[in-house]
Amino acid sequence: MDGKNTQIDRETFENLLYLSRLSPQSTDTETLAAQVRQIVDYFGILSRFSGEGNPYDAYPATTVENLRDDTVLSGLEQQDLKHMTAEFMDGYFRVPKVLGGGA
Q1: What ranges in the chain are assigned the alpha helix state H?
Q2: Residue 98 and residue 31: Cα distance in Å, rounded?
Q3: pLDDT by residue (tens digit) across 58-78?
Q4: d(CA 13, CA 28)
Q5: What distance in Å separates the CA atoms of residue 85 and residue 73, rounded to the nearest whole number?
Q6: Cβ-contact 42, 10 below 8 angstroms
Q7: How many CA atoms, within 13 angstroms, populate the side-chain half-sphere of residue 3?
Q8: Could you tell me which of 4, 69, 78, 79 has the fewest CB atoms within 10 Å of its CB?
Q9: What is this structure's pTM?
């Protein structure tokens, strides 16, 4: 972001609203737009501290030779799962409700 255009256009901002499940009618878009600009500016500050070269070098790739063998191992039995948690019933774990509809 060194000197590049860091402004977010209207279409990108609308996409951000959609992805965050915010509607323009129920949200103070001016305040939100200012916050998004602050976030983008912060990435500009962070980029000044990035090292030279590939940023992914901090996480080296794993070669195929270093991966484990693809063999089937025994897992946990259902009886063991029932003893681990009270939230296991009829072969399923009970989990918190997920926001939004459908999978």
Answers
A1: 10-19, 29-47, 78-84
A2: 28
A3: 677 778 888 888 889 888 888
A4: 13
A5: 23
A6: no
A7: 0
A8: 69
A9: 0.43
